[in-house]
């Protein structure tokens, strides 16, 4: 990995590491960077800088850190380093970069109780003394780790008094004193030597003392569009009611949103992430909908990745929620498999997913690389302090009663109501798992019984106690209209995009390319004074400028655009970036300044699009057209661009896109309705039509094709 790329990744990782993670890194890297430098480090960037100054470490790029991240359980960060977690784990077994004795001490210390830790920490430099102490503590399980270490590294064993010297790439490092004694806070332990109590240390418990505690947003998708292919989720309103009552009782400001499309859902997350949460302790999001593997569906039948919805609350995007718990509860299927048994049929039970569809009916597939199919850990967001409570395990359905609501939400709210005063959230969710898994759910035909097991996933770093007993007796919520109005504005911005005012003009003269930082300024525009540039950085974001990645659906803000005075340039790739339908109402490209773009006023190159879908485009007044090197693009070679040009010298170059043979084999060709005029994409609404001198379109339909 190039040093520049590694530095970019490390900058991103800095915001992912909590204080506990930093202390663990200091412990594991002491032999690499030296204790003095680490003691001065207060931020992740300090540790990374110290590592970079070690020329021996630099030879291995991110491998030292990858081993550290693997040991402390941050597999997500190993992936951020663009390394395979399994290979890193195998590498630690065969040829570790880290000091083997330090790895041993870390593994042992992670499994010690506080009392055992205090007894052992002063005797960790001698292998034989370490063995004797573990025997005295009756920790035969940990003693096996020491025996394995001795067998694997006999060259490191030096008689009775071992100081464990090891040669790291030619540089001799010596463990001179007890490691865990040097870092008593790693692993985290109480600072006094007194007896343990059941009450956790305040350092290891999230604060939960504000009133209100924070916002709880419930998205209740019950009534799906007929064309979506999904049935209505009868009983979902009961889930929403139970969640409303429970989280109100726990001190949250609860707002229910009913029947949202995927754009509405994303808009709610965007609006919620824009709020100032500094006075609150947490945020809760509950999504009740149909779902698939790591996705949920809007009432329009479109899917959206759960990972995308949670991404709005990463520390870099929502700083006021940094180090605070972000809780997501998802009542939806994660597949269409069922765990079955035998019982009488109960037709009042429904599944919340694609299994609701008629037999043989297809449902949208998801990209494993994006949503982490077959790899559950990718679904947990990279940053810490998240919890995602899934109603069922990956690949399986979840169930809902028409009258009593879903089994998961009912057991979740029952256990929160009963145990929130005394138990932490993970313990409560364990009870929920037990209660749901013991249910015999009569669902389906032939006397089948279905089973369901919820699946919580989390990167919480502390225990979470809701502590409702500490709430004021008068639980009248303070005025929260300001916060909720911001969310409403975000939703309204999405819903009014298709209804712009004719006079709206927006300037893009000072915008290099479309990204998440400038997109909101262009909402509702009908005329763009300047250019629209959609490039690779649009979808990748810019960590240095703190600009998050943009999802293609967000480009729908341009659906109101009818004219572009400058040029249109598209060069970006994204798995969901398949056409230019976000400019479906664009009628005219003026092409001013096309000379600065090698004479092209419409340029689409090296993109992932499959169709242009510029169905309203009538005129390109200046400049040329270049449509090239789009390996998935069909239809473009059918368009007679000369009919759109105003001048004879204007040229159209359409080359190196998907071959006509491949397009024909995959049936990506114009509808016969389009006749000889060509098309911008599939279906008859993308027919180019006959363009006359007065810019009117005379569509020529084949009556046979319409029947």
UniProtKB/TrEMBL annotation:
GO molecular function: cysteine-type endopeptidase activity
Entry's EC annotation: 3.4.22.61
Enzyme class: hydrolase
Gene Ontology BP, a term: regulation of apoptotic process
Pfam families in the record: DED, Peptidase_C14, Recep_L_domain
Domain Caspase family p20: 212-337
Domain Caspase family p10: 376-468
SUPFAM superfamilies: Caspase-like, DEATH domain, L domain-like
Protein's UniProt name: Caspase-8
Source organism (scientific name): Mytilus edulis
Source species taxonomy: Eukaryota, Metazoa, Spiralia, Lophotrochozoa, Mollusca
């Amino acid at each position: 990995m190039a040093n520049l790329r590694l530095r970019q990744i490390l900058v991103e990782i800095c915001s992912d590491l909590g204080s506990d993670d930093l202390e663990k890194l200091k412990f594991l890297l002491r032999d690499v960077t030296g204790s003095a430098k680490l003691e001065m480090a207060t931020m992740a960037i300090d540790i990374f800088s110290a590592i970079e100054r070690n020329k021996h470490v630099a030879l291995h790029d991110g491998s030292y850190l990858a081993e550290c991240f693997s040991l402390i359980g941050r597999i997500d960060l190993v992936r951020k380093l663009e390394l395979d977690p399994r290979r890193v784990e195998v590498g630690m077994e065969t040829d570790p970069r880290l000091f083997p004795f330090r790895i041993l001490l870390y593994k042992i210390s992670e499994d010690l109780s506080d009392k055992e830790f205090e007894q052992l920490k002063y005797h960790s430099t001698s292998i034989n003394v370490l063995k004797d102490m573990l025997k005295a503590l009756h920790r035969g399980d940990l003693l096996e780790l020491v025996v394995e270490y001795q067998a694997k590294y006999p060259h490191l064993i030096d008689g009775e008094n071992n100081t464990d010297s090891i040669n790291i790439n030619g540089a001799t490092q010596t463990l001179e004193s007890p490691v865990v004694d040097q870092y008593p806070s790693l692993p985290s332990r109480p600072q006094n030597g007194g007896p343990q109590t059941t009450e956790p240390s305040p350092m290891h418990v999230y604060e939960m003392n504000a009133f209100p505690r924070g916002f709880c947003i419930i998205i209740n998708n019950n009534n799906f569009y007929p064309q979506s292919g999904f049935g209505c989720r009868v009983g979902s309103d009961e889930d929403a009611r139970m969640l409303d009552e429970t989280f109100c009782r726990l001190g949250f400001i609860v707002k229910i949103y009913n029947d949202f499309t995927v754009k509405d859902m994303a808009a709610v997350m965007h609006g919620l992430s824009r709020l100032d949460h500094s006075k609150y302790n947490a945020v809760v999001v509950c999504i009740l909908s149909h779902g698939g593997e790591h996705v949920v569906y809007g009432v329009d039948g479109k899917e959206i990745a759960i990972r995308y919805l949670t991404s709005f609350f990463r520390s870099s995007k929502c700083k006021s929620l940094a180090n605070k718990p972000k809780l997501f509860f998802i009542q939806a299927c994660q597949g269409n498999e069922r765990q079955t048994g035998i019982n009488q049929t109960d037709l009042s039970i429904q599944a919340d997913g694609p299994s609701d569809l008629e037999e043989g009916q297809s449902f949208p597939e998801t990209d494993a690389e994006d949503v982490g199919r077959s790899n559950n850990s990718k679904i947990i967001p990279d940053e810490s302090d998240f919890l995602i409570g899934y109603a069922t395990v990956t690949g399986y359905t979840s169930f809902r009663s028409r009258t009593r609501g879903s089994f998961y939400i009912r057991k979740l709210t029952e256990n929160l109501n009963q145990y929130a005063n005394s138990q932490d959230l993970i313990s409560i969710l364990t009870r929920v798992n037990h209660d749901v898994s013991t249910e015999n759910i009569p669902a389906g035909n032939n006397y089948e019984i279905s089973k369901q097991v919820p699946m919580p996933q989390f990167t919480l770093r502390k225990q979470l106690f809701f502590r409702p007993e500490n709430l004021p007796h008068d639980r009248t919520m303070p005025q929260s209209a300001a916060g909720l109005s911001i969310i409403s504005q975000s939703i309204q911005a999405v819903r009014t995009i298709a209804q712009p005012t004719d006079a709206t003009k927006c300037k893009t003269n000072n915008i290099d390319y479309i990204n998440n930082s400038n997109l909101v300024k262009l909402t509702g525009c009908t005329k763009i004074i300047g250019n629209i540039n959609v490039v690779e950085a649009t979808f990748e974001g810019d960590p240095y400028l703190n600009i998050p990645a943009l999802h293609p659906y967000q480009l729908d803000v341009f659906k109101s655009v009818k004219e572009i005075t400058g040029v249109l340039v598209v060069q970006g790739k994204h798995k969901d970036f398949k056409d230019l339908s976000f400019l479906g109402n664009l009628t005219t490209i003026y092409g001013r300044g096309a000379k600065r773009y090698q004479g092209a006023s419409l340029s689409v190159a090296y993109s992932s699009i499959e169709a242009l879908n510029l169905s309203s485009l009538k005129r390109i007044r200046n400049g040329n057209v270049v449509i090239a090197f789009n390996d998935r693009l069909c239809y473009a070679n059918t368009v007679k661009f000369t009919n759109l040009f105003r001048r004879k010298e204007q040229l159209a170059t359409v080359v190196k896109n998907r071959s006509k043979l491949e397009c024909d084999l995959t049936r990506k060709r114009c509808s016969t309705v389009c006749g000889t005029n060509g098309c911008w994409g599939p279906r008859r609404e993308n027919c180019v039509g006959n363009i006359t001198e007065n810019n009117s379109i005379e569509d020529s339909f084949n009556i046979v094709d319409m029947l």
